[in-house]
Write a structure and sequence with these properties.
four-stranded antiparallel sheet, Methylamine Dehydrogenase, Chain H, mainly beta, 275 residues
Length: 275
C-alpha cells in the first residue's frame, strides 16, 4: 500500500504488481499510511493534523471515509497499527498519540520531545513505542503508562528520521539526518553499534530503516535513493541496493522475511528479494 501527494492511496497485489484499490483521500497532503490488521481498513495522516480511517470496497476497488480522528495540533508524520483496535501516531506537534480506533479518541498523548516527531515504531509485543524526532533524540514509551518516556537516547548529531524495533523487541535501530544509523539495546540503555559513521559535514542523510525478519540485517534508506544493507552485529556493509533516483522514504519487510519493499520520492515502489 502507498499514499502520495497526488491525493491517492493505492493498494497493490505484491505478486502481480496490479492495483487492487484506489482511495481518493480527503486530504491530498498525506505523509503516512498504514494497513489495519482488520481486513479492509486503512489509515492515512498528513497536513490536516488528523488520522483518517477508510473502508476498502472489494466490489469496485475504491474506498470510503469511515472516521476522522482529531487529537494532534500539528501534521501527522507517521501511523502504526498495534492491533485492530489500537494505533499510534507521530506528529509535528512534538507528541506521540495512542488511539482507541473504535471510539476514535486518544488514550494517551505522549509529550517529551522538543522538536517535530518524524517517526514512531511499535515493539512486537505491542507494549512499547519508540519515536524519533528533530530534537536529535529517540524516546521509548511504555504504552501502558503515559507519564514519562522509559528512556531517552542521545547519540545522533541531527534529526532522527526513522526507527524500527529489533524482531525480538529488546533493541531498536534509528536512521538519522547525520548520515548514520544506530543500534540501541534496551537492556543496557545505550547504542551498541553504528552503521556508517557520520562525518562532520556533507553526510547523505539516512531517511528510513528496517530489520530483516531474523534481525541479522539492517536496511538503511538514504536521501540519494540508495539502500545500504548492514550486518547488525558486525556493523559491516554487506550490500548496496540501487533502484531509486530520489529519497528512499520508506522501507518494510514482509512477515515471511523474503521481500523488502521500498518507496521513493521518484514515485516508484520497489520490491527486493531478501531470501
Amino acid at each position: 500500500m502507498t499514499a502520495a501527494q497526488d491525493g491517492k492511496l493505492l493498494v497493490y497485489d505484491a505478486y502481480t504488481g496490479c492495483k487492487t484499490h484506489r482511495v481518493d483521500l480527503e486530504n491530498r497532503w498525506v505523509m503516512s499510511a498504514a494497513y489495519s490488521p482488520q481486513p479492509g481498513i486503512v489509515a492515512s495522516g498528513g497536513l490536516d493534523n488528523a488520522v483518517s480511517l477508510y473502508l476498502l470496497n472489494d466490489d469496485n476497488g475504491t474506498g470510503a471515509l469511515k472516521r476522522q480522528m482529531n487529537g494532534h495540533d500539528g501534521y501527522v508524520s507517521c501511523i502504526k497499527f498495534i492491533d485492530a483496535t489500537k494505533l499510534v501516531s507521530a506528529s509535528g506537534d512534538e507528541t506521540v498519540a495512542y488511539w482507541d480506533v473504535d471510539r476514535g479518541t486518544v488514550i494517551t498523548q505522549f509529550a517529551g520531545h522538543r522538536g517535530n516527531v518524524n517517526f514512531v515504531a511499535v515493539s512486537p509485543d505491542g507494549k512499547l513505542a519508540v519515536s524519533g524526532a528533530c530534537d536529535k533524540t529517540a524516546k521509548v514509551w511504555d504504552l501502558r503508562d503515559g507519564s514519562k518516556p522509559v528512556r531517552t537516547f542521545l547519540s545522533h548529531k541531527s534529526d532522527v528520521n526513522g526507527t524500527c524495533f529489533f524482531p525480538g523487541g529488546n533493541a531498536f535501530a534509528t536512521a538519522s539526518e547525520d548520515g548514520s544509523g544506530r543500534l540501541f539495546d534496551l537492556r543496557v540503555a545505550q547504542a551498541i553499534n553504528t552503521f556508517g559513521e557520520a562525518p562532520d559535514t556533507d553526510a547523505i542523510p539516512a531517511t528510513s530503516v528496517a530489520f530483516s525478519a531474523s534481525g541479522r540485517l539492517v536496511f538503511l534508506g538514504y536521501e540519494d535513493g540508495q539502500i545500504l544493507v548492514w550486518d547488525a552485529f558486525s556493523a559491516r556493509q554487506v550490500a548496496t541496493l540501487k533502484g531509486h533516483a530520489e529519497r528512499a522514504s520508506a522501507l518494510g519487510v514482509s512477515k515471511d522475511g523474503i521481500a523488502l519493499a521500498s518507496a521513493g520520492w521518484d514515485k516508484k515502489v520497489n520490491i527486493w528479494l531478501t531470501a
